[in-house]
Every structure is written in structure tokens, then in C-alpha cells.
Amino acid sequence: GSEVRVQSFSIRGGEGLFKARGTLAHGAGQRAALEWQAEKLVVMARPDRRLVATGRGNAALEGGKVTLSGELRADEGVIELRPTTLPAPGGDVVIVGRERQAKGATRLAQAALDLALDFGERFRIRGRGLDSLLAGKIRLQTGAAGNLVAKGTVRAVRGTYTAFGQKLALERGSLIFAGPVDNPTLDIRAMRKISAVEAGVEVVGTLNAPFVRVVSEPPMPENEAQSWLLLPHGPSLASGSDLSMLP
């Protein structure tokens, strides 16, 4: 097939700009190799997932498979973590006519992705108790089975975490990606100070299976720490109605 060199082209939507230049091959080969550049491009526009990003990289098409690589920095973004309200079948349940897929996996069967994403200064995550800006970088790639995986650590910045009905200030908050992009490992500590006591929670595990424990500074038994967390005083001053509020 013939090969055509594309000097440049650009696509401008309602928001953002996408530019590319490279070569296109017609006919049986169906090959393409492009350098691309995005400026404030809307990458995702769902109500619970929004990403506007700027960056550059390379793209190619050969044998019906697309490869995309490069670097992106978020101009703005938001992820809403909605609670699951409907029951889901167990992992050993197979629905006839539907391809079996690992829980939480996102598949890109005809694409190979390798993108570095910088979260910038205006990317927010909300839901499941967490409300915070995110900062840091991750690397998004497709695995051998076409599943989308991520590597890297993202920090929660100036955020809060709500637990036991209390809004707590984040002392530390890390989302550690080393596998499926939608299930990072958590390392969160959120506290509130009452008098000379700080009480709060530590959250570890994963986003889909978090483990929460009550902590305090200075350290004390968990039932005392829970009293300082849920009440404006320690257990020695708790009334009967106060004690009924404790787990």
C-alpha cells in the first residue's frame, strides 16, 4: 500500500486541542506512526470521572493494534468513588454469554498503553470517606492480557477522611499503585485533636477491601481512643447516653 506523510493536523473540540504529525500507510499494511500533542484535552468526561490533561507522546497502528505512549499532566480532574449499592456475583459465578473477566480489571484488547500521568495540582478524589486533592505520578500500562495496570504513589493533599461520623484531617494519605488501576493499596492516617488528645483512624489494605483501626496520640486502649474520637471527652466523663454511641 502507499504511504502518506502527514505534516500535521489538529482537532479542536468544545474543550482542548489535539495535534499530530507523522505517516499513514493505506492498503493491506494499514500502518500509522504519529507524534501527538494535547493541550487541555478532555480525556474523560463522565459525571463521576473527569480528566482534562496536557502532554505529548507517540502513537502507532499496525496489524489492527494501537500503541500509545507519552506523558500527560492533569490540568484538572475528579474521581467520584460511589458506594456499591447492588450485590455482585461471586468470582466463581460465570454468566453464560459473557466473557469471564478478573474482578476490577479494565481490558483494552486491541491497544497497548504506556503513559506517565502527573496528577498536577487540581485533581480531586471524593467518596468512601475520602475527600482530597491528589499529587504525584503514576505509570499506566496494559498488561499481557490487555488489563490496565498502574505503578507509582500518589499523595493526598489538604484532605479529609470521614469515619464513625467524624470528619478528620489527613495527616498522611498515600495511594500506592502496583496492579489494577482501580484498586490501589491505602496508607491513610486521619486525626482530630480534642484537648491534649489526638484521636483518629488509620486505614490500610486496598481501596476495595480497606481495614480501619482507631488510633490515638498518646497511645491508649482502643475503647478509650474510640471515646475520644466519638465524644468530646474521654470515657471517664461519659454518660449512659454517651456510652450507647460507642461501637
Description:
- With 247 residues, the chain is mostly beta strands.
- The chain has two helices and 13 strands.
- It has helices spanning 222-230, 240-245, and strands at 3-12, 17-25, 32-46, 49-62, 65-80, 111-118, 123-127, 130-142, 148-163, 166-180, 185-194, 197-205, 210-217.
- Strands 1, 2, 3, 4, 5, 6, 7, 8, 9, 10, 11, 12 and 13 form a 13-stranded mixed β-sheet that branches.
- A hairpin with a 2-residue loop joins strand 7 (123-127) and strand 8.
- The radius of gyration is 24 Å and the shape is elongated.
- The termini are far apart.
Question: Roughly what is the average pLDDT, rounded to an integer?
Answer: 80
Oligomeric state: single chain
The DSSP helix count reads: 2
Amino-to-carboxy terminus distance: 72 Å
- Secondary-structure element sequence? EEEEEEEEEEEEEHH
The biggest sheet amounts to:
13 strands, mixed
Helix content: under 10%
Which structural class is indicated by helix and strand composition?
Answer: mainly beta
Computed over alpha carbons, the radius of gyration is 24 Å
Structural shape: elongated
Secondary structure: number of strands: 13
The share of residues in extended strands comes to over 45%
